[in-house]
Amino acid sequence: MSDLYHTLDEVLVQKIGLYDELIGVMKEEWTSISEYSREKLENTLERKSSLLAKVHELNHKREEIVQAFAQKLGRIQSEVTLKTIIGLKDNPWGNRMAGCREKIREQIKTINEMNSENKQLINRSSLTMKKSMSWLYELDMAYTPYYSNGQLSEPTMESRVVNTDV
Questions:
Q1: First-to-final CA distance of the chain
Q2: How far apart are CA 29 and CA 25, in angstroms?
């Protein structure tokens, strides 16, 4: 059982590290969106996707460890949680795991808040771009020989002569 405790502790520490990296990437995502930098945003989203895949792998590994605990304890897996494992009397890693659990909960809360903020920024940026494009189109209509449907029209030719003899 000692090996299971140690392995679970290692997974929790790795998860904290990945979540810290993810929070950093999400800050970069915010900056990329606010600067309208498509290239930086694409690179950031690739890194974010890679980190999320690693988190998924760690979650799978954690579930396997919890399943092993459930078998050792003679319980079904749905009854055994990290909180249950932390509370076991023979767990020498209990206090450390409790700290990790609390840290992970804080990180998840931060990630959810940042995700929401980034979505709001994307929506505001998109709306701003739509309004800007609409405004530019309205300005350009007076000066272009093209209609929005692609048809060509003859622009009005205005000519003004300036008298320079005065």
A1: 103
A2: 6
- Does this model's pTM top 0.85? My answer is no
DSSP 80-148: --HHHHHT-TT-TTHHHHHHHHHHHHHHHHHHHHHHHHHHHHHHHHHHHHHHHHHHHHHHHHTT-SB-T
Q: Using an 8 Å Cβ cutoff, are 81 and 8 in contact? A: no
Asked whether the beta carbons of 80 and 73 are under 8 A apart, the reply is yes
pLDDT digits (tens, 9 = 90+) for 65-106: 999 999 998 998 888 999 999 998 888 989 999 999 999 999
CA 162 from centroid of its chain's CA atoms: 60
Domains and CATH numbers, the chain: 2-116 (1.20.58)
Listed in sequence order, the residues at least 6 apart from 31 whose beta carbon sits closer than 8 Å to its beta carbon are 37, 40
CB of 67 closer than 8 Å to CB of 41 = no
Q: Give me 2's structure tokens.
A: 């000692």
Q: Which of 5, 21, 17, 27 is nearest to 103 (CA)?
A: 17
